[in-house]
Amino acid sequence: MAIVSWANASPISIQRNLSADERLYFVSDLHLGDGTPSDTFMNKDSLLIELIDKIAEEKAKLVIVGDAIDFHQAWSMSRVIRAHALLMRRLSELAAEHGVIYIWGNHDYDISLFRDLLRFDVCSSLTLDDKVLIQHGYEYDPFIGPNLEQTHLATQAHHLIERILNTWIRLPLENFYNIENRLAFWCFHKLVLAIKARDKLYRTIGKADWCGKTESYLQYWTMNQIANPAGIFYHASQFVQDSSYQHLLTGHSHLPGNVPLGDGKSYINTGSWTFSSAQYAIWDGERFTVKDYITQREYTDQAYKPLIEHRFSHMDFLGWWRENYLGWLKFRVGEVGRFKQPELPNMETN
Fold this sequence. Notes:
Elements: E1 15-18, E2 24-27, H1 45-57, E3 61-64, H2 71-74, H3 77-83, H4 85-97, E4 100-103, H5 112-117, E5 121-123, E6 125-128, E7 132-134, H6 148-165, H7 179-204, H8 214-226, H9 233-242, E8 247-250, E9 257-262, E10 265-269, E11 279-283, E12 288-292, E13 298-299, H10 305-308, H11 317-324, E14 325-327, E15 330-331, H12 332-335
Parallel strand pairs: 1-6, 2-3, 3-4, 4-5, 7-8, 8-10
Antiparallel strand pairs: 2-11, 6-7, 9-10, 11-12, 12-13, 14-15
Helix pairs in contact: 1-4
């Protein structure tokens, strides 16, 4: 029987604690799929096995911070096992040898698969003494957190559309600058104009409450595009600042970083293993380091500076559109680029 099913609005709380003196490796958001071109893990099995072997050699412990398997993309565990059989076996061996802790995420709808098949120690959160709290991070997502079941349906539809079109429909646009995604942005702009006109009418006739959460959702979408994936940074950083913990580590947003928050506190994000990324975090007993396994690049607060400085907090979607749309389905962020981004594999060639 599953420990948790996302058909339930409130997953069971299972908390674990480890000594802060242990050496720990953290990965999250692997999103292992079915090995087809729409599998965002992008066949990096051998690289992750190398990291697992390194962890075993050091007699360290691995903590997977959720969303290891993308059931929405793969549709069944058997398809994942067929596509990533060697990796799954190595993870199971590591769990038997040294233990693997698994913290469930918003893509994990049947935790018994991790507990019974892979022999992971499954929980909803992990603490390192009273110093560090580790959670997947969806808890700080203003839309996914309180709406897990509804967002699962939307994610399934999204994966199906990508599979049918054989392309990526994703944010940020500059990382997935294909004609289908540009057309989706153009259509979304027309939808936003219609929603704005509708909400203006509601306010005019004294029915402002009919607008619902439209404005907050559009701003959430805009921040996902601009600088704050999943909208979690401000909520997560405020939580750790108000709590007794020194550090909060999450995944979920796929934006790696080690962000000082003052007074010796910090927010750490493990990044992801999707597309060209292979990011992980290490706790050495005193401090965190966040790195990319492929490039060995170390992440500090580089990607989070626009958020810390509130650089884009004034901008809504229409403001972003005015700044970026060049006409004829061309966008400044794709043609010129606000930030330099790594080149991602083309879906048709993987």
